[in-house]
Specification:
284 residues; mainly alpha; globular
């Protein structure tokens, strides 16, 4: 039976060889005159930033040395910088192509981008992610989620966005703040399996530490779920499923979030200088 590493390498290799795979994405950008030639038409900048970031993550997991890894990372960086400096984040508008500061999406849309930006810049520098940016990103995601009430809250996307904020705090070394977020009196009907697991992991981390080396038992608690989500064949439940097993967040980004949390709170090691190890853990 093939290992995860072999499966990831095979899948990414196939996408690198297919005309409609990664080369097709690059060719399309070149044919249009640039990856961001249509930026002025964007209605949801967080999706543009996320899509470029996910391209990078996939190649980094399966083909660390391939030049597309750096290309896609630079695209993610450019997209985040364009979004964070775009005046549309200061504009409310019925037409979301003209303004992104709109009820129902803001400030969470900004928070997603800021969190990705913090990770991208750290990867480029092989450094620690900037904690202040991750904390602000978490606050913006939390604010958007809690602004949703009733049926607006009762979706896996909104509930998953709240848990992404918890993950950003954990990556930033803010376990106490992450624990506090999980005391909120809201139902997590659709993502409760993931919420319970995050709570179990946080319960094993002492107060205050930026780093924590897990015991064998603590490590088992983390690795059991991490092994499921990093599986190349893992898929979240379909949108119509009424169970608590949704994630409400992109699986590729979740794999990286969990690998970063593992680095800090399972291995007890800094992230700076160890980004390749972080990605290695996903495919190991």
């Amino acid at each position: 039976m093939k290992s995860y590493r072999e499966i990831w390498a095979d899948r990414v290799s196939k996408e690198l060889q297919k005309a409609n795979g990664f080369p097709g994405v690059v060719a399309s950008a070149e044919a249009k005159g640039g990856r961001f030639i249509d930026w002025h038409l964007l209605a949801m900048p967080e999706l543009a930033v996320s899509s470029n970031f996910e391209l990078f993550i996939e190649v980094a997991i399966g083909a660390w040395s391939h030049p597309y890894k750096e290309l896609f990372l630079s695209w993610a960086e450019q997209a985040a910088e364009l979004a964070l400096t775009d005046p549309r984040f200061d504009i409310e508008a019925d037409n979301s192509r003209k303004g992104w500061k709109n009820s129902g999406s803001y400030p969470g849309n900004h928070g997603v981008i800021l969190g990705i930006f913090a990770l991208v810049k750290a990867m480029k520098r092989n450094s620690e992610p900037m904690a202040t940016q991750l904390i602000q990103a978490a606050k913006e995601l939390e604010t958007s989620a809690l602004n949703a009430r009733g049926q607006a809250w009762n979706t896996h996307i909104v509930q998953g966005g709240y848990l992404r904020a918890v993950q950003f705090l954990m990556i930033a070394g803010q376990a106490d703040a992450a624990r506090a977020m999980l005391t909120v009196r809201r139902s997590f009907k659709y993502v409760d399996e993931h919420r319970r697991w995050l709570q179990n992991v946080l319960d094993l981390i002492p107060e205050d530490p930026q780093l924590h080396t897990a015991s064998a038992e603590e490590r088992s608690t983390f690795e059991e779920r991490f092994d499921v989500i990093r599986d190349p064949d893992f898929r979240t439940v379909p949108s119509f499923d009424d169970s608590d097993k949704h994630l409400g967040q992109d699986v590729m980004q979740l794999r990286l979030d969990l690998a970063l949390i593992r680095q800090r709170y399972v291995l007890g090691e800094t992230i700076a200088g160890r980004w390749e190890d972080v990605f290695y853990a996903i495919s190991a």
